[in-house]
Each structure stands twice: as C-alpha cells, then as structure tokens.
Write a structure and sequence with these properties.
Elements (H helix, E strand, L loop, with lengths): L12 H21 L1 H10 L2 E6 L2 E6 L3 H8 L2 H32 L6 H14 L2 H9 L8 H4 L2 H4 L5 H19 L2 H12 L3 H9 L4 H12 L1 H17 L4 H10 L6 H35 L1
Antiparallel strand pairs: 1-2
Helix pairs in contact: 2-15, 4-9, 4-10, 4-13, 5-10, 10-13, 13-15, 14-15
C-alpha cells in the first residue's frame, strides 16, 4: 500500500475553532430550516397527501408515484432529458468562457477593474423574475444571430445534434456570460495564488506561453475547475427558471390531479439525477487530475 507523499498541514487551536465556528453557522441554519422539510418531502413521496384542518393526512401508496413519474409522465421525462442536455452544453462552455475571461482580467491591462465589475454585476442584480423579463425581451441572445449564421445551409452538412447545440449556444450565449460571474472570480483567485517563479523557470527553459498554459496553468487550476464545475451544476439545477422546478412548484404542487405526494416524488427523482450528473462530472475531472499528477 502506497503512502501519501502529501505534507500534513498543522492548524493551530484557534484556526480549528474558527473553522468549526464558520461551519456551525451553516449547520444551525440547515438543521433548523432545511433538514426537516427534506425528510418530510421524502415521506410525502410515498403517500397521497391531503390537507385537513391544517394537518397533513397520509395515505401510503409505496413507490407508485415514482413509477408513475418514470413511466407515464412524458412531460417530466422530457424535462429531465432537456435538463441533462442543457447541463452537458452549459457546464463546459461556462467553465471555458469563465477561465478565458479570468485570464484576461488577471492580466495587467488598463480598465480590468471596470470589466471585473461588469462581469460580476449580473450575479447581484439578476434574479429569476429579472431574468424572465430579459428572456421575454430577447436580451439573452445575440441580436441578428440568424443573419450571421445560416442554420438552414448548415443543416445539410452538420449532424443534427451539433446543429442543435450550435443554435442553443448562440441563442443562450448572453445568459452564459451572466452565469459566469462567480466562476470568473474563483478562477482569478486561483490564478493569483499561482507561483510566478515556475513561469520564470519555464520561460528560461524556452517554453512558450501556450506550453506554459497547458503544462503549468491548467494542471494547477484543476481543483479550481472541479469547484467551478460543481458550482455550475448546482447553480443551473436550482435556478428558479429551471423548467422542472417550475413544473414541480406550479403544476404539481397546485394541481389537484397530482398533489404534494407526487410533487415530492418528482423532486426526489430530480435530486437523484442532479447528484448523478454532478458525480459524473467530478469523477471525470478527478481522473484527469490523477492522470496529470502521474
């Protein structure tokens, strides 16, 4: 069995207590406001739920809600498929775009402070209702993109899935920039913490900037990339305009045909799918990180 060569980091007592204190703030909030509703929805998912005089009455139905959602609800299954496809397109594009912008904003150029503010402002001002208004007004896409790219001409030469991906990205590219603010800051933090001596040594050895990016910058940023991938998947999954979330909250929760039990079952299926996609993304980047270390 190989022993790890990583040096053990020693923390002082005050640092350990400070760390636990910061974690405790989140844990108290989670235990007080989130844990009980999670357990309650899990119980609801196996029951038909009715509200009588302010109390919930449960009628056990086993896994019937899960079976119905996965075998009979075509709209829900289509929503899961669209969600998975959107993540496959969004996550790598947001990660790459935010890395490129972070490297540009980290350079010593005039006006970088202004552009840092510009790219981070959407994180502060764009909530679900604001984004909905922007989308309805067509602000989320490039104006006149249909005139710049002839999608009908490409239909005969490009596979359908690539054409659909291209149309989706061109129509959603402004939203991709809006969703990249946090990731840009995380990448900039990782870039600013990198040792400049290794770049100077590589430059003395004759390495080009392209080689330094692939062999120094990118491997060193791999943990940061994993963090941004996790954040992007979670952010897209819990965004208030997500069609599945909208369907669960409005159609199922408020509809007499389905009710709380069915809504809870679909929410748990969605949660499991999100965890599976999140685990797959992390596994891919972790394997890449181990391969780079070798």
């Amino acid at each position: 069995m190989k022993k790890s060569n990583k040096p053990k980091i020693q923390y002082s007592r005050s640092e350990v207590l400070s760390g636990y204190a910061f974690c405790a703030l989140w844990l108290v909030g989670f235990m007080a406001f989130t844990l009980y509703p999670i357990i309650q929805t899990f119980i609801f998912s196996f029951n038909n739920v009715t509200v009588q005089e302010g109390a919930f009455e449960l009628d056990g139905v086993g896994f019937s809600h899960y079976v119905q959602a996965l075998s009979q609800d075509a709209d829900f299954l289509q929503g899961l498929e669209d969600y998975a496809i959107k993540l496959v397109l969004y996550v790598p594009v947001i990660t790459v775009v935010s890395l490129i912008l972070a490297m540009l904003l980290n350079s010593k150029l005039k006006g970088t402070g202004f552009f840092r503010t510009v790219f981070f402002l959407p994180v502060i001002i764009t909530s679900g209702p604001v984004m909905s208004i922007f989308i309805d007004q067509g602000v989320a896409s490039f104006p006149g993109v249909e005139q710049l790219i002839n999608f009908e001409a490409l239909a005969g030469t490009v596979p359908d899935f690539l054409l659909d991906a291209l149309q989706f990205l061109t129509s959603e590219f402004i939203m991709i920039l809006w969703f990249s603010g946090i990731q840009i800051l995380v990448f900039m933090t990782g870039l600013q913490k990198m040792d400049k001596n290794m770049y100077e040594a590589a430059q003395i050895d004759g390495a080009s900037k392209w080689e330094m990016f692939w062999k120094l910058t990118l491997p060193a940023l791999n943990p940061t990339i994993v963090l941004n991938v996790v954040f992007t998947v979670v952010m897209q999954s819990v965004f208030s305009l997500n069609p599945i979330i909208t369907r669960i909250t409005k159609v199922y929760m408020n509809g007499a045909e389905y009710g709380y039990g069915y809504a809870s079952a679909t929410a748990w299926i969605y949660f499991i799918v999100m965890l599976a996609l999140l685990g797959l993304a992390v596994l891919v980047f972790k394997k890449h990180e181990r391969r780079v270390r070798r």
